[in-house]
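Deliverable D4.2, example record:
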Amino acid sequence: MSKVYDVAVIGGGIVGLASAMALAEKGFSIIVIEAESQLAAHQTGNNSGVIHSGLYYPPGSLKARHCLEGNRLTYEFCAARGVPHRRTGKFIVATTPEEEPVLETLLTRGRQNGVEGLRIISADELRRHEPHVAGRSALLAPSTGLLESEQLVKAYAAAAQARGAYIATSAQLEAAEPQGNAVRAIAANVGTLETRVLVNAAGLYADEVAALFGNHRYRIYPCRGEYWEVAAPKSAWVNGLVYPVPDATGRSLGVHLTKTLWDSLLLGPNARYIDDKENYEHDLEPREAFCARARQLLPGLQPEDLRPAFSGIRPKLTSADHPGTEDFVVTRDPQFPHVIHLVGIESPGLTAAPSLARHVAALVAETLG
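Output generated by the structure prediction step:
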């Protein structure tokens, strides 16, 4: 006999778990199907835990909307659930005269998006906060912060399970087939199940899940971001979050400096397209090249100060040959409206997760009447 659910969420990353929580709160029966043996093993588990403010993204985009709302909801959720977090603020630093107009552009865009408290500060004021950082001026974003990603994952999962959601790990989705107004699916260690709505929150594999329904309009291009850690005593050279002016290609926000909640200092990420969605370690950027990027902000840094930390992989919707910033995709399948796809959920997905979850819950409620 097939097990029957209102909603099957494919993917146990931060967006899938937040969606499961939001759906369970509405009283739906939920199963989360995660291929790995642990939750959030990919993008969610390999990032610097930044709570973004929402200033980078085009006004009116889903990234802008969900990041802004997600910022507020994430702080509220962390405070209510005891998830370690800190509202640190961050500095986006112009190191050359050519970069300073970009700060004005970001200031304008951030205000259009509704981000509060943004202001441009002088080199002297930057130096008072970050004496080792080189810069001509900086944009201060006070609503940016940090959280402990692993604890946030556990809190979303626990909240979903407390409302009756079932979370299956080591449950690779093997098949999915629409049957009338439902979907019949088969997953390892779960068996056959039937769901009235399927939510595709599969991250790096969202394009492959969409393809199970004959939907080939999406292609994920894996883009790896590598992190290094600064050894003591230079790990004390940065007090908070310090970012460069964003990468002009739109691939990333640039190699930045993150003083973590446990007082280590991370550098990263870079942005390097790769062929394998699980290639976290092969052919890393040389230490010297990575250090050269970071030294624009922290001139006293030397290659021998760096030690490898970890890597994460972004699910880009644009290729290396056509770089740029693509918006989140949150949509019903054009042929099967009881299938909802979330594709290209890269940064600021961690911040946006609770807002994206509300979006998903509204679509599901509309589908199920």
